[in-house]
Amino acid sequence: MNNFLYYLCNNITSLKQQEKYPRVNGFKSRLNYILFTHYSIAEKTTTSRMENNKKALLGMTLSQIKEAVTRIGMPSFTAKQIADWIYCKRVRTIGEMTNISLKNREILERHFITGFSSPIEAMCSTDGTIKYLYRVDNNHFVEAVYIPDGERATLCVSSQVGCKMNCLFCMTGKQRYTANLTANEIINQIFALPQFDTLTNIVFMGMGEPCDNLDNLLQSIEILTAEYATAWSPHRLTVSSVGVRKGLKRLLDGGEYHIAISLHHPDPKSRSELMPAERGYSITEIVELLKEYDFSHQRRLTFEYIVFKGVNDSPTQARKLLKLLDGLDCRINLIRYHAIPEVPLEGVDNDSMTRLRDYLTGNGIFTTIRASRGEDIFAACGMLSTVKQNQNN
Ligand code: SF4
To answer: Is the CB of residue 242 below 6 angstroms from any atom belonging to ligand 1?
Structure first.
């Protein structure tokens, strides 16, 4: 099946379906809209949703699997075998778990499904970036973005359907909040990814605010870093947050993964116009909390800063930014703005980005410019899922 996907992705650039690009509130996608309507049909045996009240194994921790199997009368050691089949071998059916007796597999099948659900659509950029759409419970959709870059391959993962934070510049925010993703739905974006074996990094920066769905996010991270599963170093994971009062401390205490804070403006009043979450937990309080943690070794703290023309790109704001972050071991990541419909914000040109980066780095905070990827495939977070949701309504 993966070969099928690669085939389509590699060949789709020639398939410019001139009049078939979807519209997002009047905007037209420029290239490469691909409907993978047959992709999931070939994987009928897999689903992330509850099937006749059967629970998904993918997304359960080892102790949860142990508890579940003992409840149905199976020996607890089968939990380790099941975790191995799900997380290491990634089998799509319980029937393939051949070191478990046939009788126990039949019992398992009466109560559980493996819980893998392949992406239903994919859009491939000419730069190699692939935006995947996954169907989640109640016929909603979330995005995961695969970004290959030389030796690295990063996956940007969603944590919610929609988002409560309503940031002015974000398409997901415009969707408003619909639901938290379950641990199965979060981790499925990773484990059902066609390029799973190539992944080097995961960033929880997709749709939704991770701090708003912490139980399921932390459970997913526990699985990714556990010996019985993928045993990834937490330093291959980054969790991004706008900073939510109820949650940020728990997120910081939850593990050694990297932290990214969406900053976007150094001045609280102006930040609140871009990000209403500022009113609930101000950036100055967030910075004070961050100062209690050690980011001087392997754990990294990054501030994400989308640069908007005439809004947060002046020398005065750059100086305020340096003052705000003074005393923190951190870096700043400047991000180009991907325009979304009906939002009166504009990005800046390359020279302005470079000037800002050089000024900040020259004054003590190492600053990078995030390479823009997937410009031709609805680069802004939430655009593809918005299109799909509109088609379904
Ligand atoms: S930028 Fe992040 S926190 Fe803000 S609305 Fe979008 S998904 Fe939510």
So the answer is: yes
- Which segments of 157-253 does DSSP mark as H helices, in order? 171-175, 183-191, 214-225, 248-253
Q: For residue 83, what are the CA distances in angstroms to 187, 200, 286? A: 14, 21, 38
Ligand 1 pocket check: which of 242, 265, 308, 337 to mutate, most ligand atoms within 8 Å of Cβ?
Answer: 242
Q: Could you confirm whether 278 is annotated as catalytic?
A: no
CB distance 181 to ligand 1 below 6 Å:
no
CATH 3.20.20.70 for domain 121-392, yes or no, is yes
> Top-level CATH class of 50-113?
mainly alpha
So where are the chain's domains? 50-113, 121-392
Name residue 55's beta-bridge partners: 112
Q: What is the mean predicted confidence (pLDDT) over 175-187?
A: 96
* Best residue among 161, 166, 167, 271 to mutate for probing ligand 1, ranked by most atoms within 8 Å of CB: 167
pLDDT band at 26 (very low <50, low <70, confident <90, very high): very low
Query: How does pLDDT run across 381-390, given as a tens digit for each residue?
Result: 777 777 777 7
